[in-house]
Design goal:
6-stranded antiparallel beta sheet; Neuraminidase; mainly beta
Length: 485
Amino acid sequence: MSSFPDTPAFTGFNTPSRVEGDAFDLAIEGTIPPEIRGAFYRVQPDPQFPPLLGNDIPFNGDGMVAMFSFDNGRVHFRQRWARTDKWKLEHAAGRSLFGAYRNPLTDDPAAKGTIRGTANTNVFLHGGRLYALKEDSPALVMEPETLETIGYTDFGGRMTGETFTAHPKIDPATGDMIGFGYASKGICTRDMTYYEVAPDGTLKREIWFENPYYCMMHDFAITRDYALFHVVPITGSWERLAQGKPHFGFDTTLPVHLGVLPRREGTTAEDIRWFTTDNCFASHVMNAYQEGDRIHFDTPVAKNNMFPFFPDVHGAPFNPAESASFLTRWTVNMASNTDQFESQRRLTNMAGEFPRIDDRYQGLPYRYGWLLVIDPTKPVELKGGSAGGAVMNTLGMVDHETGTEQSWWCGPVSSLQEPCFIPRSADAPEGDGWIVQICNRLEERASDLLLFDATEIAKGPIASARIPVRMRFGLHGNWLPAQAA
């Protein structure tokens, strides 16, 4: 086997892990409340083999799913590959067969006709099923207890689009999983699909429509009555792929749009309404909700591109200062006669991303939000290498009701991964529970699982568990309470 490249994406803390295993009763500092019972699932891109083209971006690694089971104050660990069609084909060949990120023109001929998805972006739980997700492919189903891969699903043949989002939402009123797909007719198409999936796995509804332009639509939001799609100019084309350029590039000349699709029965593509604002960058969504005729959409917004590996389409150099994103509330008015945003208001001066909420308040008015923060006032020592991109060194919390904020810094030689909220009980008040997340100990090349009181994060973690293997920088994860297993 050839070696992994000697580049920042594959060395230091970013060295591929490629470890499947189980560990019972992890070593813990502090005390884990015994009432926490359930499992925290997360996924990381972790390439099975050295890249076919000699180097690669972090987003193209194979999905490695981890499960942390909480029971009676103890934590147990299990990790398995998401055995996608790509993973199985390459495993049998003993080498990489797929080339550049989302560019089939660079694949080995042996890979032709195989779904290219890596299932490396999110693991989402619904109706007793664990979905490993990558937005360029269908959802991959895994067994929640064993992490055994079952395979891709088209929901009994009812899903006719080619893709399923990495960021579905649960409607708190119905329990349905709400999702979408972009490039639904294939790479670089403007076609979109909206999905509603019942808890029993039945696809209840599929609506086709078109985006104003092709883009990387990574996340979206729901409210009680609407689905909301933000179109941000991380664009791509077959011309770029034929030239060997990265699939996506950021176009500073295009406007940003917010599509509002009614979720009522009988909705068609003609019912979607598009609002427009000036160029900016936005990716993940904290939450959205309705207030009369107004819809509020909360998302971290940057003046310019946040992804240096998706370069400016006009050749401008990456601008770190303009890549800082700040949680911002976009408001549109469904009673207005204009297609312009009504207002945009910054909600915090903490620069950050990976926003999360108490998911029981999905699409509803809410009070608390958490996110990863890049605090430039804190010292950074990249001993062992960064865990990926800018150093997210702080956990932040925003109280939208009082306007107050909290933060906790992880130290100069560590960085943090996405937070996830654990409710104390199904009917506990909003924010009554804990935050769980992974901390990257860069110098030690080790990883800890941290637990915080959700509304008192400034006090620091109440417990930490030492993970027996190094966890590469993961993307997203979710919590499954024991009673729902």
